[in-house]
Amino acid sequence: MGYGDKLFWLSVLIQRKYAQICAELDLTPMQATLLCAIKDEPKRMTYLAASLGMTKNALSQLVDRTERRDLVSRVGSEQDRRVIMLGVTPTGKVLADAVYAETAERLPDIAENLSADDQRDLERIATAVVDAADVPASARS
């Protein structure tokens, strides 16, 4: 199995664990990701579409479904009324914090069979990959 294959299967393991956590909280992985992206402050819809790798139409549909559950709310920007900001509702904030905490606590389980040194190496490498990808610091809280 080549390097790309291994990264593919690592991605599958991570996605499977994340999907399990989301399902336990009655969220789809995309709803959970959306909530986590805006849990600390509202974000522009255009920014969210770009950062989540979604079309504006797909994001709007996701927001519609999530809004019907009273987890997010759209708000016009005070600076520019044409700009739509998306924020979490109090219920959405509770769920976003739960997803984030559960994921941070349980995702390392995928490496539980590694030695302590290998786990530290994986943490160091994961940090370097995230830093190189220019993920905003607010998204890494």
From TrEMBL:
Pfam families: MarR_2 (PF12802). SUPFAM superfamilies: Winged helix' DNA-binding domain (SSF46785). Residues 1-131 form the HTH marR-type domain. InterPro entries: HTH_MarR-typ, MarR/SlyA-like, WH-like_DNA-bd_sf, WH_DNA-bd_sf. Gene3D superfamilies: Winged helix-like DNA-binding domain superfamily/Winged helix DNA-binding domain. PROSITE patterns: HTH_MARR_2 (PS50995). This is Transcriptional regulator. It comes from Winogradskya humida.
